[in-house]
Design goal:
Oligomer: single chain
CATH architecture: Beta Barrel
Mean pLDDT: 92
Number of helices: 6
CATH superfamily: PK beta-barrel domain-like
Distance between the termini: 41 Å
Number of domains: 1
Strand content: 25-35%
Number of strands: 10
Length: about 180
Amino acid sequence: MEHLSLNELDAGLPDIAAAPADSGMLAMLVLRPDVDERETPNTAEFQPNVGLVGDNYAARGSSRTEDGSAHPEAEVTIMNTRVLELLTGGDRTRWPLAGDQILVDLDLSFENLPTGTRLRVGGAELEITAKPHTGCGKFAKRFGTDAAKWVNHHPERRLRGVNARVVTAGSCSVGDTLTKVD
């Protein structure tokens, strides 16, 4: 697939900005059992300090912690499906390449979901953390250099997605509604 230019990506911003604000449908769950491996189960379980059960979050660790352990503010990553639709030309088989575990049609902007916002999906409750989720080298390789620049150029919109931590363990399924908790 040919990658989109910055102008083509910017043309998609109005559709992305029109995403639902309070709740959205969970379109896909993605497990990363190992580096560059992806599974898309219909149901999944979330646990505090583990993230999505079966994902390599805890085992992989983080270069951003002093001891190399998993970053507590990045147990789960969430990305907007409208951004993925644009980046992949609608090819849902490429969505898991983004590396995010929850793919949902929801406005992830900082204005809509400030740090500390809680979200419920199935029986689980998640909390948006302060740790930014930005486009990296792998993201640029998969979706293009312009796409990596573009998602990082609009930090307030959180086009690359958001990081979250698990507050309450629980399971969910594709098709469930992810809802802001008051």
